[in-house]
Amino acid sequence: MSRVEVSWFGALCDDDYEFLGVPEDRLKSSYPHCAEIVLTADRLGYDNILLPSGYALGIDTIAFASAIAPQVEQMQLLTAVRMGEMWVPQLARQLATIDQMLHGRLTINIISSDIPGEKLESEPRYKRTEEWMYVLRELLNGNSISFHGEFLDIDLDPPRVRTASGTCPPFYFGGFSPAAKDTAAQFADVFLTWPDTVAGVRETVNDMRERANAYDRELRYGLRAHVIVRETEAAAIAAAERLVSRLDDDTGEEIRKKSLDTQSAGVARQNQLRAAAGDDWFVEANLWTGVGRARSGAGAAIVGDPDQVKAKLEAYMEAGIEAFILSGYPHAAEAKLFAEMVLPHLDHGKLYERVPV
């Protein structure tokens, strides 16, 4: 089995609970709380951590990444940026600065959801994303840009500040509409998929390989999912049931509607999985969709004992996955459990090693 990148989740977006759907002040998104999650993951040996982007929910991603970067000793920061939200030359300068602070350990999660206060149909929204991604990569590679598109019209030299390697950090990108997949095939480095059956993940990877081949490109593939691991399967199932034991359907629907991407094709697939699950919310062995009752995005968890969780991850790896972005509730506590029970038994490391050119 080849090496895999194992990442955790930074919960900047007000998504941390002991009981799903029951907010607690101690778990609200804040600099101290999210810093604890990030530094815990760094100390435990995770390879990367996703710092999500939101508007109504949580704290600012770029500001947080800048503050935490000097304290992170070995881990990468997968910093989410929403295309169109910030003027791209300023974004390039900020990201290059953070990468320097991290000594070349920045990775970038490209987000194409609607900008707060603005609605665009899928195709023009992804067209804007393509233009932003192209120009952002050119500037971070230190190239001058002359670009005249539908959303960007710009002639500019790159900023003096460069990334630590002098090259653009890898772009991680997810999306399931035809426009999203076409954007990924042309401009992304890592295509991220949400939880699905092993067969469903394999189908997605094969589909994206064909799309990328049409542009003479190769992508790498990642899976964003929750995880609940305990010493026994029964204990893991009990932990999953406890997590949703105070959740009612109305509260769950209210939480799901807060997201900016509730109408996306990816969310629709998460809803399908949940509808196909049994009364225990398992849609296949060790894949539990109960967490999706209060999440619009990644709506399933890998649940089981250490051997079962490892086997499930390996099944996804055999389907083409090379990177996992995992999370659990509460995030700091579950990161410790996974690091104790599963992480030491995985051959893991950074997906990309960037060196100065």
List keywords for this structure.
two-stranded antiparallel ribbon, 357 residues, TIM Barrel, globular
Could you describe the 3D structure shown?
Helix 3 links the parallel strand 3 and strand 4 (106-111). The longest helix has 19 residues, at 122-140. Helix content is 38%, strand content 17%. The chain has 357 residues and is of the alpha/beta class. The chain has helices at residues 31-44, 61-68, 88-101, 122-140, 178-187, 198-213, 233-243, 249-257, 265-276, 306-318, 331-341; strands spanning 5-9, 48-51, 77-82, 106-111, 145-148, 153-156, 171-174, 190-193, 220-229, 282-284, 287-288, 301-304, 323-327. The relative contact order is 0.16. Helix 1 (31-44) runs parallel beside helix 11 and helix 5 crosses helix 6 (198-213). The two termini are 30 Å apart. It has a domain at 5-226 and 320-345: Luciferase-like domain (TIM Barrel, Alpha-Beta Barrel). It has an 8-stranded parallel beta barrel with strand order 1-2-3-4-7-8-9-13, surrounded by 8 helices. It is globular and about 60 Å long.
